[in-house]
Amino acid sequence: MQKIKRFNLRPAVFSALSVCLGVVAAYNFILNSVVWGVICCALFLSLCVAVFLPVNKEFSSLAKTILCCVISVLFVVSGALMHYAIKDYENASLDNHYYGITAHVSDSADTLTGKRLIIENITVDGNIKGKLSYKAYVYIKGNIDIDVGDKVTFSSYLIDNPIIYDNSFSAYNLIYKTKYTAEVNAGSIKVISSEPTVFESINIFIRDTLSTALERDEFSVAYAMLTGNDEQIDYELLSSYRYAGIAHIFAVSGLHIGFLATTLSFVFDKLKANRLLKAIVISFSLFFYSGICGFSASSIRAAVMTSVMLFSAVKGDRYDGLSSISLAAILILIFSPVQLFSVGFQLSFVVVLGMMVLTKPIEKLLKFLPKKVASSLAIVLAAQISSIPVCLDNFGYFSPVAVLLNIIFIPVASVIFIALLIAVIIGGLFNIANITLFLPKYVLYFINVVINAVDFEKLVVGGFAFGILTFVYYAACIIPSNFINLKRIHRIIALIVCTIIGVVSSVAIGVIKNEKTEVFVVGSERLCVTIIDAKDENILFASKASYGFSAARLKSISDRYGVKNIDTVVFFNDTSIDAQVFMTKLNTVFDLEKVIYFGDKDDMKEKIIEKSFGVQMENANAHQDFIAGDILCEYVIDGRAITAEIKGKRFAIFSFNEVDSYYGLNGKFDLMVCSFNADLALNFYKPKHPISYRHSSVFTDGETFGTAIIEFI
Q1: CA atoms of 503 and 564, how far apart (whole Å)
Q2: What is the pLDDT of residues 322-333, one digit of tens each?
Q3: Pairing state between β 616-620 and 591-598
Q4: Beta bridge partners of 108
Q5: What is the DSSP annotation of 655-700?
Q6: Cβ(161)–Cβ(178) under 8 Å?
Q7: Which residues lie closer than 8 Å to 187 by C-beta, 6 or more apart?
Q8: How far apart are CA 688 and CA 665, in angstroms?
Q9: Share of the chain above pLDDT 70, in %
Q10: Distances (CA, A) of 162 to 35, 344, 508
């Protein structure tokens, strides 16, 4: 009887796996865990052993030895490149000094308080002098006319961006080389000249052409579809697209590159052009378009993958999708190893791989449907199923309704994309944008109305993450496919085992998480809050909430960590908090039940809040115990600080900046959350978990390091 070969030895696949393991090993050895680094090395050794398995008879011993040497070199080189990327970023720190700065503006976006720029080619004059190799974010307070391509000069502190932010590796900053952050008033920054690059000039041409013919919402959606820049889209509208599961139309990636490549391929086929010429011209066009989009990581990935496919076709060889995508991964990660940790890279590859692996098995299950319907549905389902762990781990939710919407919307989006591209080129060149964009304007208006009309947020699933179970999940996805040759009974057994492991582990993780008490600290110039996520009730302590603050970080906590309701909101005696404004935004994120405020009973305040938000109101005075859920609390220091105890552990939360006022509290604290310049106080009390809301030179920082998360109990 002929033995079944369990898998095919693909050199490109083994090479790609070795590159990924090298990158992950370096990351763990430097930033995370030596244990995980050792595990990555062990997995690589297993990969080498797999090369020499007897089942790979089509390869000679010499070929296997060469392949093993190649993947070993790739493992070491990719690890070394990752090590260099991290260390170079860390070594570029400027220690938060004040500089005179001259730079080129490469990106500009409006914010609530002014503009946010990204500047490059930075020359500094201060503690050090010369040209910097990294970019910086610049937040401008006030109105000023600055555009992409302008050369600007100003003076400011350059604050180093941390390599770990919001408890995650700052892959985005490393990929785009944005190392610093600065703040400056509008009157203190000057435009010296305007020197846009070719790509920036084309981007400005697209933006200005669209803005002359479209209203704000339609313009922002069209501009994002063509350039990948979604910062012009209203936050609420963008959130609606995200919850609907179709916001990927704003990331110039495989979808857009595919539309463009298909259109150009159709033209070349009609012209009966040479295959090599076709591959060269289309590939050049795709990378040029990527340049217009700022060489975004997702557009480069898609261009590389499409180019590999085009040049594979030139040779006349059978296109091997798995080898082609592996080659694309190798090229991208050798050039930029940090890409492996970006959400865009992960989604791009798991979705494409998911479609390769799952489309045919799903299509077989849907054979009762018409063939075209079954095929389209299978592709979308495969993409959605494969993306679930990445979405949950990075965004905190996924959208089940996205399957239906993508089946409807992707064909529409392809037509809109090509129509917008043609309309902008013709309309901009001949100054007839109002005519060429007339029909797209109303199509986009209709789509925006439909997306806004439905509350897709209520249909999303989230509040948990796969974590290490991601590997079990993807193993279960691969088992039904033809990538591993197994008998039917063996597939069924393997699926049952994966299911049991997944269910048991999920229940265990859920039980453990339910028993934990976690503390989330969000700190910024406009918003400082502490959330106690306890077993039975969730308490939010509002230390500061100035007008115009963003609730995005609170929304992230709700989505990613499953904190959906706040049982008690506790206000400090702090005039910076506008209770009604704060509650209005808070109510869009959490379900609220009760509010406790400091001072004498205020019937008018209670009546307004209770009527507006349907919550229960209570008041408490200094040195008077009050109960917030299961937590015994006490207002101290004239209501500007709170001490509390939960399960025998004490904590204190402050809402002021005066250093001298911190002292005078009795006893020891397991957790202290302080405001700006709290280093001395935290050193004095020496709590087990010291946190600063604002920038701190010593302790965990809710501003500089994103949301600080402490497993308190």
Answers
A1: 23
A2: 887 888 889 889
A3: parallel
A4: 117
A5: ----GGGGTT--S--SEEEE-TT-HHHHHHH--SEEEESS--SSSE
A6: yes
A7: 142
A8: 16
A9: 93
A10: 23, 21, 33
228: Cβ–Cβ under 8 A, 6 or more apart, which residues?
250, 251, 252, 256, 293, 294, 296, 298, 299
Beta-carbon contacts of 657 under 8 Å, excluding residues fewer than 6 positions away, are 675, 676, 677
Cβ atoms within 10 Å of 39's Cβ, excluding its own: 15
66 is written with which tokens?
A: 């060469």
Provide φ and ψ at 493, rounded to 5°.
Answer: -65, -45
Euclidean distance between CA atoms 667 and 645, whole angstroms: 12
Q: 21 near 47, Cβ under 8 Å?
A: yes
Structure tokens given for 431:
């100054």
Read off the amino acid at residue 710: I
Instruction: Decide if pLDDT at 575 tops 70.
Output: no
**Which band of pLDDT confidence, cut at 50, 70 and 90, is reported for residue 676?**
low
pLDDT of residue 213: 93
- What does the pLDDT look like over 418-471, one tens digit per residue? 999 999 999 999 999 999 999 999 999 999 998 988 888 888 887 777 777 788
Please, are residues 600 and 570 in contact by the beta-carbon 8 Å criterion? Answer: no
Cβ atoms of 79 and 201 within 8 Å: the answer is: no
Cβ-proximal residues to 240 (8 Å cutoff; 6+ apart), any chain: 451, 452, 454, 456
Name the CA dihedral angle for 206, 211, 217, 218, rounded to a multiple of 10 degrees: -60
HEC string of 287-312 equals HHHHHHCCCCHHHHHHHHHHHHHHHH
- Amino acid 132 reads L
Two structure tokens written together for 550: 């963003």
Placement of tokens 């978990």 in the chain: 689
Count of alpha carbons within 13 Å of 72, Cβ hemisphere only? 10
Cα–Cα distance, 711 to 232 (Å, whole number): 37
- Going by DSSP bridges, is the β-strand pair 631-636/700-701 parallel, antiparallel, or unpaired? unpaired
In the 8-state DSSP scheme, what is residue 636?
E
What does the pLDDT look like over 137-153, one tens digit per residue? Answer: 999 988 888 999 999 99
Is there a contact between 55 and 6 (Cβ–Cβ < 8 Å)?
A: yes
Taking residue 216's Cβ as centre, other Cβ atoms within 10 Å add up to 12
CA dihedral 469, 473, 479, 480 (to 10 degrees): 160
Average pLDDT (685-711) is 79
AA letter at 364:
K
